[in-house]
Design a protein that fits this description.
Layout lengths: L5 H6 L9 E5 L12 E8 L2 E8 L1 H6 L7 H24 L8 E9 L4 E9 L5 H7 L5 H20 L2 E2 L8 E4 L2 E4 L6 E2 L20 H4 L8 H21 L3 H8 L14 H15 L12
Antiparallel strand pairs: 1-2, 2-3, 3-5, 4-5, 6-9, 7-8
Helix pairs in contact: 5-7, 8-9
């Protein structure tokens, strides 16, 4: 399992003033990405378990841009909490069916940590898609299509209320009673609410970034471009369902070593041809057998 968070351990047994009792640190798979600035907890109230996502003040303090500035860290942390809370409220009031809704929210200074803990409460999922696929040996084609259809519907619902997700990946797709829903709007963009990440072109997980971001190409920060980013991320998710790899990981195998994002220092025009070839070769790669192998 993933490394334990000391602040999460310190919260075990604590009951918030709103009645949420922390029963354990929420366990995430070793391979799961994201959540670097959150404390993930399993909490209970009225005999039912829920999931608490609390912002981690210590992690925010360690961010390079904060440089030990407590005032800036608190300001940024609170702004991110309020922003995600606002987006969750929009989804709940819009009756989005394929997006996880927030149950409760608040912030409290916890005595044994002596720090402010802003938190969001959600229904507790059975597991995420990353964990499910890692544990599944057989390929259920019908389930894969049904699950991807539900993700696409969730994305369509978000776009209808003018929100782009920007961080679609296996660990952000959660299981609830044999259906999946989109989760974690912390890196999303809303067309009519200013985001704390407004200066970042792609605030999501770098393992799934579109090629433009991986190669630091500046593009217009428009609604259309952000929708296109979501489309690329959805395509990468489809690839992951079929191969257990992201599209970027496969593309990298077909790019010249001198043109990998970690070493390339040239111009975008030099990349477009090799990227198009690598993308085409990736679509026909047969390293991982799928239901389409041999067709």
């Amino acid at each position: 399992m993933a490394k334990s968070n000391p602040n999460a351990q310190a919260l075990i047994g604590y009951t918030f003033k709103t009645g949420w009792k922390v029963i354990r640190e929420h366990q995430r798979p070793d391979q799961a990405t994201g959540g670097a600035f959150s404390i993930c907890l399993d909490v209970e109230k009225d005999g039912k378990e829920f999931f608490m996502k609390a912002l981690d003040f210590d992690a925010h303090m360690r961010k390079k841009e904060n440089d030990g500035n407590e005032v800036k860290a608190i300001r940024d942390m609170t702004a991110q909490h309020i922003y995600e809370e606002q987006l969750c409220k929009i989804c709940k009031e819009g009756h989005l069916k394929k997006v996880v809704h927030v149950i409760d929210s608040g912030q409290e200074t916890v005595p044994n940590l002596n720090i402010l803990v802003p938190y969001l409460i959600f229904d507790k999922a059975e597991m995420d898609v990353h964990d499910f696929l890692e544990k599944t040996d057989q390929f259920d084609f019908v389930w894969h299509l049904k699950s991807l259809h539900q993700v696409a519907l969730g994305l369509l619902e978000l776009h209808k209320v003018r929100i782009t997700h920007q961080d679609i990946k296996p660990s952000n797709i959660l299981f609830f009673n044999n259906e999946v829903k989109l989760s974690d709007l912390g890196r999303s963009f809303c067309e009519y609410i200013e985001s704390p990440f407004e200066e970042k072109q792609y605030p999501g997980d770098h393992n799934y970034w579109p090629p433009e971001k991986r190669y630091n190409r500046n593009i217009e920060k428009s609604w259309e471009q952000r929708c296109l980013t979501d489309c690329y991320l959805l395509g990468s998710l489809i690839t992951y369902y079929l191969t257990r790899e992201s599209m970027n990981a496969i593309i990298d195998r077909h790019m010249p070593s001198s043109m990998h994002p970690s070493v390339f220092n040239g111009k975008w025009d030099e990349l477009t041809g090799p990227l198009e070839i690598a993308f085409a070769e990736s679509l026909t790669e047969s390293k991982h057998p799928t239901p389409f192998s041999g067709v």
